[in-house]
Design goal:
The chain has three helices and five strands. With about 110 residues, it is of the alpha+beta class.
């Protein structure tokens, strides 16, 4: 699945045009069915020895969230299923949200 957030805001015509156009966005997508991990096939057919060693060492590692100019986070539960992914243009939003998500629960 691909999710895109597009800024359609029209910039101000004055000297503060850049300020009216800039934004720090964050988005979270949840699915009870879960997200299907994608294997990382980068360099799989290459002849580079280091890439082959990395492919062997990380053969069971998959991608759950990939950012294009943004930070991403995938929440994986105890059942090893991913039901929530987040992306943010401000990496602090991901870091603080993830830290609070992993804190111990009362009770």
């Amino acid at each position: 699945m691909s999710v895109f957030l597009v800024n359609h805001r029209v910039p101000s015509p004055d000297a503060k045009a850049d300020e009216s156009f800039a934004f720090q966005a964050a988005i979270t997508v949840r699915s009870e069915a879960g997200f299907v991990p994608r294997p990382n096939v980068r360099g799989r057919d290459g002849g580079d020895w280091d890439e082959k060693v990395a492919d062997l060492q990380y053969r069971s590692t998959c991608e759950l969230a990939v950012g294009h100019g943004v930070a991403t986070s995938a929440e994986v539960g105890e059942d090893r299923a991913c039901r929530e992914v987040s992306a943010a243009s401000n990496t602090g939003a991901i870091r603080s949200r993830t830290a609070s998500r992993r804190s111990p629960r009362n009770g």
